[in-house]
Amino acid sequence: QVQLVESGGGLVQPGGSLTLSCATSGGIFDLYAMGWYRQTPGNQRELIAYITLDNRSNYDDSVKGRFTISRDNAKSTVYLEMNNLKPEDTATYFCNLYPQWAITNVQGDSWGQGTQVTVSS
């Protein structure tokens, strides 16, 4: 199981930027694709970006062109650079393995505490 610690969230004005970090431990970071997910109150957690072991990335349409996911295997850390933030990006952001079967079978559906991002003027 991979331990996940997200950080870097905060309050930012519309149009601003933040970079989130997800530090992992457990020794298997370089065996799995990683994803960033977000959740708002009353809604299900949704995948917004993922990055494969060979650094191919994919984005949800809602963040495409504004967010960039990256990973540093030497540091066992995955990042999410967020630019041109919008109020609708307000959410709690989580990282985890990708895809869902890895979260279920490797992580036992375990998640970190997430980091809150609030976009407001």
Q: How helical, in percent, are the residues?
A: under 10%
Order of helices and strands: EEEEEEEEEHE
Tally of contiguous helical segments: 1
Number of strands: 10
Kindly state the mean pLDDT as a whole number? 96
What distance lies between the first and last C-alpha atoms, to the nearest angstrom?
39 Å
Q: Which geometry do the CA atoms define?
A: globular
Beta fraction of the residues? over 45%
Order of adjacent strands in the largest pleated sheet: 2-10-9-4-5-6
Structural class: mainly beta
Largest sheet: 6 strands, mixed
Taking pLDDT < 50 over at least 5 consecutive residues as the criterion, the unreliable ranges are none
- Report Rg: 13 Å
Structure overview:
With 121 residues, this protein is mostly beta strands. The protein has one helix and ten strands, in the order βββββββββαβ. The strands form two sheets. The protein has a six-stranded mixed sheet with strand order 2-10-9-4-5-6. It has a four-stranded antiparallel sheet with strand order 1-3-8-7, with no helix packed on it. The chain is globular, with a radius of gyration of 13 Å.
